[in-house]
Amino acid sequence: MSRFNMDSKIKDVLSSEEAIKILESYIPGCSTNPQLGLIKGLKIKSLVGKGHYVGLTPDQEKEVLDKITAIE
């Protein structure tokens, strides 16, 4: 069973080194960006469709979500 799903909070995702590596591979520096604090309480699903704000294409956004929700 996957550790994360669309209802997981960003702060929980950031507690996983594996998830951080995935995020950093697509968005370098994101895990240390001070503005990250603004979204830590949000659920993953609330960020779907907003990847373009950080330079992700829709395909890249889907890849990130698929990889993170596959973490066990």
Give structural attributes.
3 helices, globular, 36% helix, 72 residues, 0% strand, single chain, mainly alpha
Describe the structure.
The structure is a single chain. This protein has 72 residues and is an all-alpha fold. The chain is 36% helix and 0% strand. It has one domain (10-69). The chain starts with 9 loop residues before the first helix and ends with a helix.
- C-alpha-based Rg, rounded: 11 Å
Distance between the termini: 6 Å
Largest sheet: none
**Percent of residues in beta strands:** under 5%
Number of helices: 3
Order of helices and strands: HHH
Mean pLDDT score: 95
What's the β-strand tally?
A: 0
Helix content range: 25-40%
Q: Strand pairing plus helix content: what structural class?
A: mainly alpha
Number of domains: 1
| Spatial shape | globular
Low-confidence stretches: none
Summarize the structure.
This protein has 72 residues and is mostly helical. Helices cover 36% and strands 0% of the residues. Helix 2 runs antiparallel to helix 3.
Strand and helix map with partners:
Elements: H1 10-13, H2 17-26, H3 58-69
